[in-house]
């Protein structure tokens, strides 16, 4: 599509014929004309949309979890703390690690946590929910996710039974 923007002649590629049908091409042309009427350059808008899609695909759960772990390492957290976080996140990576973080929903996180819970690891499931929540809150803070779905999962698990044990104490005389 040929058009003029800010006094300069420009071209906008809509697509190749067999891939993009006539109806779809006309719809894209009409959208480009609407952008021009609003004072926006359609080719710039197309580039911005393409970059946003590429960024959304690159912002996977695994990438943001690694970024959060690096941040905690820079904050000089203890090595044991970092290894616990990495161990917990390794339980979630097979199921949701490669998914874009903005597309992960509460039922997907619940499925990951249920897999841990069914093995009888109730406390691990609780800690994993908290760690996944940290990743989502970091993604929300950096503008790569809208919400933290783990908040909706509170109370969805079996509460671990705490068994108090008597301590051996020595009487000082």
From TrEMBL:
Keyword set, alphabetical order: DNA integration, DNA-binding
Domain of life: Bacteria
Every Core-binding (CB) domain range: 59-140
PANTHER family in UniProt: PROPHAGE INTEGRASE (PTHR30629), PROPHAGE INTEGRASE INTS-RELATED (PTHR30629:SF2)
Sequence similarity: Belongs to the 'phage' integrase family.
Descriptive protein name: Core-binding (CB) domain-containing protein
Organism, scientific name: Methylocystis iwaonis
